[in-house]
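Components:
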Amino acid sequence: MVFSSLVFLCVFFPLQMLLYSLVRSIEAKNTVLILFSLVFYAWGEPFYVLLLLGMTFADWLISQGIYRYRGTGKSKAFLVLGCIVDLGLLSFFKYGTFFCTNLQRFTGFPAVIPQIALPIGISFYTFQLLSYLVDVYRQQVPAQKQFRRLFLYVSLFHQCIAGPIVRYQDVSEEILSRKVEESDLRTGINRFASGLAKKVLLANVCGKLVSLTLLDGLTENRGVNLAALEKTPALLLWLGAICYMLQIYLDFSAYSDMAIGMGLMVGFHYKENFDYPYLSQSITDFWRRWHMSLSSFFRDYVYIPLGGNRKGTLRTVLNLFIVWLLTGMWHGAGWNFILWGLYYFFFLFLEKFLIPGLQKLPRVFAHLYTLAVVFFGWILFYFEDFTQALIVVKGLFCLNGNSFTSFESVNMVLNYCFFLLVAILACTPLARLLYHRICSSTQKGAVVLGTAMEWILPVLALVLSVSFLVGDAYDPFLYLQF
Amino acid sequence: MKHAKELKRGAKGKSVFFFTTLVLLMVLSLLIPLRPTESLAEKRKLAEFPEISASQLFSSDSDLLSGVYFDDIDAWFSDTFPFRDVFFQVNDLVRKGYGLKGTEIHGSITPANDIPDTFFTGE
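Structure:
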């Protein structure tokens, strides 16, 4: 199930909130959340819900061993076992087909490539489980004695399938006891409604413009796609690539907003996952603001344990290389994702070692440089086929013999000019600042306006989103495929 | 006087308003008799509730295990939503504000037949 489906919005979510508020004890509330999470996951993956259960159970058993023998070599052996189980399963499901395809390309073996389906959310919940095991090993948190409580943490539908990657130590106490303050409920509703509107009213429309202009980015119909892309006017390519850049942020941050909002409504406080990344002043800054739960995972569980920057320059470079190779691989089993990760390694290496001045450019230039790097990065990310990516990059500068504009392209930009402006502004804190400005005024008019906005905007966002979803069947979030 | 940031702005009332709307949407969506079965405007039959036979339930390649069955329910639920035409109108109202809609192109433009270089002589 996805947050932007009508079954979720009109049946699943209200029913969950209703039952959750009817039961009193924390155990009963947790049971409601577990049952709804099982239905949520099984709706999209009826079979692999068993994998989710099995992996959590295995890790729960292993964590008991890690905790029991804490401080000894046995504890480390249990941790290694846990990592082998989790990473082994993730590798099998996520990279099995990719590995066999490339092996066949070079050696001719195996004759038949197995087609392994990717269970939804496996990259997210595997990382959550890993963080739990490592934190227990580091004695930052005791092992959870009850399986059901650990399963609640892993399977909770707010974050199970597309993040944010929540750390067990951040929610372990709230699993046992939590209270929903009035301010939490208020903020939760705002975050949920604004996330929903961001996804349905903005990201989905951006997505449609992308598929109209950049084609589907898939390798099917390669010849036809290549010929069409070569002739596409530059203006359409710019429009498509900018829309993809907007879509991927709006879509993914919307999911995190909704997750954080729904968490607040039941007393869970998840950490922020985005901090207006398109306002960054350098690539280093960008990765401090984009998918923060993933970059902090790699920092705390890969980069620092490898020695971070404490073992000399060469080792730091190697550690950075490993982290960005893994970041690329995490996003998908494809060479384009790996290259995309290493593309960022290159720019981070440049900023850290070769041209440190890049991080101290005047604001306008720093911002332009960052946006340009990120923009071309998304083109690499979008196309699994490098030839298509190259054609698009050349086409942006009319190097394919394509024209800059056409009747169709100018018309499309005019047809969507106001929409694009709103989508770009939605990537900035402008609306939030305006809202806070109104809400921090004590003038009578401002108080009335602020209160009216508080009441009306979330409901308006909900009803408008439903109106967009009626008749529009299945519309998954982009990050579900990772 | 209270500082503006300390104002609760009727947080309780706001929650009641939001969740009541949500529950009303739930009730509306579950009023099965109100769900249309065909669209006059689109001239087509709308998606039907998917059926599944008992023998399909436990077969290894069943729609139930692959998730297709639930996708079909999603499609039915959204396609036959009560008062779908009213929602379309609301949707259309928003889409009208997307930009300057002097000329809109639906589908794709392809060149027509070339104009012949020489005059047709009839021979």
